[in-house]
Every structure is written in structure tokens, then in C-alpha cells.
């Protein structure tokens, strides 16, 4: 009896660890505490489980010894679980979340690159990339195993994870996919999972859940809630979409995660715990960090270079702790990498796709889908189950050889699967028959079940004895190749018009989030009843914010911002983004009026236009239309309000369109500002009549609205200076037309260089209008700019939306004759413009101090609207001895080292995503290019940087899109070029300079121009300028008003910039260039946001205790921190 009791107790302990469904299902995020054990529901489940265990023991006496031995192997784990610290049930606590409860303890910040077991740069050096034929597993090898490696005490545990991958736009629009397939998938999901508690499923795309939920009655909503609570359905990642990881800006990734997480919490009470990324075309370390900060415990990835997969599989390194290259083990993300070619069923059960395809039961005869290997699946019957089960198990066992444990993850699904109820029955019924047979066979030592990611990762952690026993890895997984030399580096640039539009949208959306939160907090602080008008449905501002948030989130999809959808789908994305821009522009102008109104908490007319924003977009494909400031009788002065959404003072250039050249610009005290007026051109030598450009320099406080006055004047001594205009290479081929005020046009000597000098930079341009050299900070460096073009390789496999398969090295774009060059020069800026084939190139040097004056601004208006198989790049060639090393960013969040290996990798393998910037350097000089849009970048020889501008391709690249890329639109690609002297050698991880960071902020988060629509004499406050600190390094990434709880709260995300201190900051900065490891929120935000806060996860689902806002918080360089403000 004593022995039986011991065994029975051991069984209970084993089930406590392995069968997590015994825990109360009402709160799956609650820690295992004494309170949990006292739950009455738990008691009933416990009694029921005891009865079941007693019966099992009687029926399975031969398994008793196995269970006793298993107890010994897990006793340490059980002790850890039962000794876990008890906290309030509403506070989420585990090892991931310790930082949510941190106070003012100083943290030792990493100073050098992280140490790891696997460094991807070193791994690339060691891989031969020989693409050897591996047999049935073409990209691997012939896997063998010994059946004796399994036994009664060491079973192979199979976790089959059913899923359906639903692209929110690709061959069809988001809505078309929903109505044709996804709606049925989700309806079938709640019905078919409810039929059998053994069935499980995972779902990723919250955007589709939102659409489906909005159409459902209470019965289906309750069904889905029950499935989630029981663990049959797991929502994985929880983002609005499965975001792209190459082109997406990290701000937008956080935003789309937050949008999804908020929806899940509001409607399903779900906090996602695991991430699922099976289709993004390469994987970024930034994404892993953002998931970690959102309290995601583990993730799965798929699309990785086949040679990298092979090497990791050989070393049993496909499961690892993904570590940030600039951090330590606290950033580790437990990651599972799928080993084979694809995520479809033929490539997931094991190495032989012709065998695995036989277990995709949607391909049964009569279902309309077949196996390419011409061996169809068979319905599982009593007659064939033994043979079929053993055939499948052989694949499982071979796949298990690639991992360190006997816990095996096997996906079951594909694109838009399970849209018919027949497929649910075919897949689940046939697999259940296979599992029943496998589990009953005592000689096979296998346990198989349907599962979720939570089931798998829980079992993995137990099996491995803690995830720290897995290897650590630093680096990223770009550039992806799925076979041969087919590198997916084309999509880094495809459809640049939409990529640029994405960045314009996030600039306006972030500005709207910040100014709306400022307005709401200000109204709340100055009124006893808060700010009811701002939040009211009548105002409509919340709805407009939601429209924009969801449009931006949708475009982060891995077929959206990548530019890899059908033409009509891209137009649909574009239409949504333009509507979103209109929506947030309205929010901005209404919030500005609210903050500047003399009366506290005014109720404004929601349909009124108080300010016109400076640009509009009439349709998808069109360039922005700038609003022109006009004057008339009794209207000699116009107000322009500038909104600075950054929490630092900044000095910037402002460009406005005016109807008259006799204008002056002053501040509110009528003090003139440095400025100039210059003409506009509709052709190279033809000026526009009745419209001019006014340039002026402003310095504005943090988080402020500041008013400036644009006035018509008849006094030539008061008006802004007129810029001079000179032409080079004008030989009569262009018609000359001068606008009023600019009748004198100079002529530059033929064939001579053009020299430009400013406070911080001297530059030399060729007679063709392209940069030749730069002098700054006491150095002079050759920096030769030219445009080059690639063709597409001939053959069956050619460049397309995804792939870049060039026909050889790029060729310099040659000119038949010297192009006409315009030089527009004034006291505050000099601008050089030249029309080259495919590109209207403009370079501007600003004559001022600070970050704007330290760089050269470049705008390439690319018009690749004709031609066939042309890819155009901007190449910069310098004297910098950079060798084989160059640096690109990941999602505009961190820099990463790249190495050129042309001896074993093709040209296209050296193109990497440049979401924000790239640089090359030697021991003394760095050349950086900061980008206002994501594009592909490479360094194909020492001292060189190359940035793709646009691609026009006539054919499909056989990756499913079934079309080329020929819907090109004129696109203004915007850059800043920085040349900097290095004062020392840094041992730190790769970092941008402070000037590069500030230039990136200037491009992405520009000043918002608000042109007053009404009477300039109407009394508004001249400014709104809260008292805050102005540090260059502490960046308010976002201020987002959230309706997650009953009362609105503002979520704050802070970013401590990390810069290379060997590159001195620009002279004359308006902010304090200090890089700290501590944060005091009360110094960053005005007191209107309250004096209490909660530290939170990045998407605000998990919160710690209340803290005063003046509590010092540790925030190491490059780290993010989030807070919910009271």
C-alpha cells in the first residue's frame, strides 16, 4: 500500500508538471501559487484526475516504474514551481517580467558586444555555401537514426500544431480574402474545435479576428472565449498582422503589436505568450527584442537561408536563445527554427516531402488538391493504420535528429487552410486515428497529440531542464535564400512609392498620438471633469485615430510594406494609408486648436477646419500637393503653427509655398528669422508663375506648438532675401522662363566644378551636378555620387518582386550630353538640381549649426515608369578604407555589421535591408547615409555604399505572385549624407553617431506645419510649450492614449538612444548631448500627465506596481521602457 501510494503521489506530481490543463482555466497567465491551489474548480479537477490516475495505474501496471523514474528527473523543476513567489493575482509575475517591478536600482549596462555561443557573422564565415544535393532533403543530408535511442523512460513526444496562415492582403485584398476564405475558417474553427476537446489550433492575425468578431452573435463569441480559456485555441504573437521584419520601422512594429494586443485584451481577455512567424522573408533581431519587451516568452521562425538551417541542424542548434548583440542574457528570446524548405505540410513532418505530403489529408482524392510527387494520401482505416503510422513516425524520428530533445514540434497547415468543414474532419479524424495507434503501441515509445505553441514550449523547457541549457545566438537572418542563388533581396526595394508613403504615415500618426495625448492630459489637468469633448464620439477623434492605427498596422504585413502584393492590392493599401493620413491630420489640427484656445476645455466643431496641414495626397500614386499661402486685401499676415512632437528642442529648416516673393517671416514678437525665397520650376529651365518657396530656420521647444507669422511686405528691406539662380550646361535645349522677382539668371562656366560652402560643410559637385567631395570637421574626402543600373539575368528564373537576380555588376548610367544643372543659392541654403535618366536629383546644404547643417540633404525623385527589367541604384564611392565590412540597420533600431564575401556568395546576397541608415568607416572617418524610407543597400567594394532606388521588372519570379513589378510611381526618396571624423576607436557594439540619430528623427518625425485657416486676428495663444528637459538621447517613442481600461490612460514608450561617442556631436545642438543609463519620467513629460505611473510591457498588457513619476528608472543605451501614466 505504501508503494502504491508513493507511485500514485508521483503520478499526481507528474501530471501537475506535464498536464497544465489541470490548472484553473479562468486565468492562464496567473502564476502557480497557493491561491491557485485553493480554487474550487481546481479541487474538482484534482479529484477527477485522481480517479482517472487510479484507473490508469490498474490498467497499466507495467508503467509504474517508468513514472517513478520520471519523478526523479523532474523533482527539481517541481520544487521550483511550488516555491514560486506569491503575488497579487492581478500582477503577472515570472522571470520575463522582473523588470516591471524594478525601482531605482542602478543597472550595469553592457559596454561591448554580447558574447554568445553562436555568432552569425562567424557562422557565415564557416559555411561553404556549396549547395550540395542532400537527397530527399535536397538542402540537407540523408538522416539516419538508431531506434534504440528511445525507450520506456525516453519517449519521443510529438506536438502537432494545426494552423492556417492568412495573409491580410496578397493576391486579394484584406477584405476580399476575409469574405472568400477567412470568415469560413474562423467560423469552422469555433464549431469544429468544440466537437472534440483533444483538437487544438493556433491563430495569429488579429486583424481578421476583428472583422470576424464584429459580425458574430453572442453564441460564437462565447464559443471562442471558451476555446481560448480551455487552451484548445491559442492566439500566437497577437499582432494585427504577421509583420515584415526587413522594411518595417520598429515604431510601426510596436504599434501593430499594441493594436492587436489591445483588441485581444478587450474582447478575449488574452495576453499572448508565444510568437509565430512562419512567412516573413528573413528574420530580424529587433523583432525578437520587441517581442521580448512585450512579454512574449518564446517564438518560432521559418524563412532562413537554407545553408544556415543546414549548419544549425548539423550542430543541433535550431533551438536557441536569441540574444541582442548589444545586450546580455536578459534580452534572450527562446527561439525555435523550423528546419525545412517551407511551412506547408510536405515540408514539416520530416525530411522527405513526398512522404509528408501523403499526410496532408486535404490532398485526399476528390478534394481538388494533389501531391506533386504523385503519391496521394490514404484515409486511415483499421487495415492500413499500422503501416501508415510507422511511415509517418519514421519521418518524425528523422526530424527529431535535428534537435537536442525528444520533444518535437510539427506544424499542420498552409495558406488559408481549413476553410471547409470537410478539411477539418479529414485532418483531425485521420490524425487522431494515427495518434491513437501510435500511443497504444508500447514498442514504439512515442506519444503524439494535437497541440498549441504553449503546449510545446512548456514541454521543451521541462525536457531541456531550463532554456539556459540551449545555446545563445547573436545576429540576424538576412538575406534569405530559399534555394540556389535565389536571394530575396529584391523586396527590400520593391514598390518604393508605398514604402515612402508608409514612413509619411507613421510620421503623421506618431505626431497625432503625441498631440492628442498632450491635449487630453492638459484638459484633464485643467478641468474637474477631464476633457470630455476630446474623448466624445461627437468629436470623432478616437475613431480617426483608430482608422489610422489599423491602416498603418495592416501595411506592416509581410506582403504590404514589402511591396510583394498584386497591383490592385497595393493600391488598396495605398488608399487606406491616404485615408489614414487625412484622418490623423484632422486629429492634429483639432488638437492644436484645443491646446491654443484661450478658453479651457473648449467644445469645438468637429467638422471645422482650423488649420490646413502643409501637404495633401489626392490619390494613390500621386506626389504630395503642397498648400500655398496666399495673401489678399485685409489679409497681409498669415499664421503658421509648427508642432514639435519630439521631447527635445530642435533647430530645423521649414519650407513653405507662398503666392508672393515679397514676404517676410517673423516670430510672435515680430523678430525676423533667417530666411530666403526661391523660385519653383515645372521644367528644368522654366519657373512657375505665382508660386514660390520660402525657406527659414526655426528653433522650437520640446513637445510644443509655436506660432510664426508670414507677412506680405512692400518694403524690399524687410522681405526675405531672394536666392540667386544659375544654370550650368544650358545650351538652348531647354526653354528659359523666369518668374517675377527672378528675372536675372546666371550662367556657370562649362565643364567646371560647382563649389558650395556653409557653416559646417564645404562640398564640390561635378559639372553634371553630382557630388564629388566633402570637407567637414577638418577633413576632405572624395565622395563620388553616381547612378547605376542592373539588368535581370536571362533564363527561367529571373528577378521579380521578391528576388534580385542581376545579370552582372551594375553599369553606370551614362549621359548622351551634359545635363542642365540648376544652382539655387541664398543665405540659408544652397540647392543643386539635375535631371539624370530615371532620377531628378536634388542636393541641399543648409547654412546653420546643429544636426541639419552637418549633413547634405538629398532627394531623388525617381521616375521608372518606362522600360523593362531595370533596377536603379545610387552609388557613393569614397576614399574610406572600409575593407570588406559595412553596417546596415535593423528596423531603424540598431546597427549590425555586414561582411562582403564575394568569393563564395553572389552579388545579390550582399544586399541587405536598410530601414533607416547604413555606414562605412575606417580608423579615422565614417560615411553615413540616413534614409527616409526602407530600401536595399550594399557595399560591393571598399569605400563604397550602394542604395537601390527603384525596380521595374517584366516577369514573375515564381514565388506565387504571378506578375512582375510594373506599377511604378514617381517617388521622392529622401536621404541625409554625413561625413564625420572619428576621435577614437570604440570597442562598443556597432552604433550610429548622434548626428545620424538626430538626422533620422528629422526625416521620420518632422515638424508638422499648420497653416491657420481663419482670421489671423482671432485670439489664440501664441504657443503651447510645457516645461520639460531637452536631452538628445532620451526619446519619447510614443505617447498613446489607450482605451484598454474603463478610463482612458496614456501609454508612454521611451527609448534611450545609443551612439558612438568616438564621433563628436554636431556643433550648436539645441538639445543636451548626454547618454545616460537612468530615466526620470517627470523630467521628460509635463505634470499634466500626473505624478503616478506603472511600469509596463511594451504593449501595455502587463503592468507593475504604482510608482511616482520621479522615480529613477534604469534604462541602458538602446533599451526601450514603457509606462502607463495615471
From TrEMBL:
Entry's cofactor comment: Binds 1 zinc ion per subunit.
Superkingdom of the source species: Eukaryota
Protein's job: Catalyzes the first committed step in the biosynthesis of complex N-glycans. It controls conversion of high mannose to complex N-glycans; the final hydrolytic step in the N-glycan maturation pathway.
Pathway assigned to this chain's UniProt record: Protein modification; protein glycosylation
Keywords: Disulfide bond, Glycosidase, Golgi apparatus, Hydrolase, Membrane, Metal-binding, Signal, Signal-anchor, Transmembrane, Transmembrane helix, Zinc
Homology family: Belongs to the glycosyl hydrolase 38 family.
Reaction catalysis annotation: N(4)-{beta-D-GlcNAc-(1->2)-alpha-D-Man-(1->3)-[alpha-D-Man-(1->3)-[alpha-D-Man-(1->6)]-alpha-D-Man-(1->6)]-beta-D-Man-(1->4)-beta-D-GlcNAc-(1->4)-beta-D-GlcNAc}-L-asparaginyl-[protein] + 2 H2O = 2 alpha-D-mannopyranose + an N(4)-{beta-D-GlcNAc-(1->2)-alpha-D-Man-(1->3)-[alpha-D-Man-(1->6)]-beta-D-Man-(1->4)-beta-D-GlcNAc-(1->4)-beta-D-GlcNAc}-L-asparaginyl-[protein]
Cofactors that this protein relies on: Zn(2+)
UniProt KW Protein biosynthesis keyword: no
Signal peptide (UniProt feature, chain positions): 1-28
SMART domains: Alpha-mann_mid
Molecular function terms, GO-annotated: carbohydrate binding; mannosyl-oligosaccharide 1,3-1,6-alpha-mannosidase activity; metal ion binding
Name under which the protein is recorded: Alpha-mannosidase
A Pfam family matched in the record: Alpha-mann_mid
The protein's Enzyme Commission number: 3.2.1.-
Domain Glycoside hydrolase family 38 central intervals: 486-577
GO biological process: mannose metabolic process; N-glycan processing
Cellular component GO terms, alphabetical: Golgi membrane
Keyword flag Transmembrane: yes
Subunit structure: Homodimer; disulfide-linked.
Coiled-coil regions listed in the entry: none
Annotated compartments: Golgi apparatus membrane
